[in-house]
Amino acid sequence: MKLKLLIFAMLAAAMGPAREAPPPQVEAQPASPEEVPADPVAPEPRAELRILSASDASPVDFLWNARPVVVFADTPDDPAFRQQMRALEGRSEALVERDVVIIADSDPQANSAWRQQLHPRGFSLVIIDKDGQVKQRRPLPWDVREISRAIDKLPLRRQEIGRAGLLP
């Protein structure tokens, strides 16, 4: 008898609410666009790649916040410098995703803090991690894809990717 009662109770619970129940109430739609609430799932505005002059920033400004990619040249007319800057501006979304800030230094006479610290000769591309350590130096222009791969191999970047749930 108890088994029959238990089975009946389970069936009644599984059936859900009665069909005669009134339909759920639907909230009224806002009349004007001003009344429309902000969408909590709306995409954030896209961040843009920051390209700064070496005289406008110092290495300590980016410690633990961003990865400076410093592009050195002896003159702004250097073909390698121009090619590198075009490449960086062309695929900026990959760099923004990796917290990269571009530092352009094409004036050796200014003797910026970047030049004093890194001692470049002619054209040079230097990738610095968030901890302030130089990770890569290149004497020729690099594609954004190559820069992104080099950054993704860095221990701090691998930790960031892991925290985001992208790595097992």
Q: What's the quick description here?
A:
The protein is α/β, with parallel strands linked by helices and 168 residues long. It has helices at residues 2-15, 79-90, 92-97, 113-118, 144-152, 155-163; strands spanning 50-53, 67-72, 100-105, 124-128, 134-138.
Mean pLDDT, to the nearest integer, reads 83
Q: Note the overall shape.
A: elongated
Write the H/E string, N to C.
HEEHHEHEEHH
Number of helices: 6
The value of Rg in angstroms is 28 Å
**How does the major sheet shape up?**
5 strands, mixed
Spatial strand arrangement across the major sheet: 1-3-2-4-5
Strand content: 15-25%
Task: Tell me the distance between the termini.
Answer: 53 Å
Task: Kindly report the oligomeric state of this protein.
Answer: single chain
Structural class: alpha/beta
Number of strands: 5
Which runs of at least 5 residues are low in confidence (pLDDT < 50)? none
Name the helicity range: 25-40%
List the helices and strands and how they pair.
Blueprint: H1 2-15, E1 50-53, E2 67-72, H2 79-90, H3 92-97, E3 100-105, H4 113-118, E4 124-128, E5 134-138, H5 144-152, H6 155-163
Parallel strand pairs: 1-3, 2-3
Antiparallel strand pairs: 2-4, 4-5
Characterization of the model:
It is a single chain. The protein has helices spanning 2-15, 79-90, 92-97, 113-118, 144-152, 155-163, and strands at 50-53, 67-72, 100-105, 124-128, 134-138. With 168 residues, the chain is an alpha/beta fold. Strands 1-3-2-4-5 form a five-stranded mixed sheet. Strand 4 (124-128) and strand 5 form a beta hairpin.
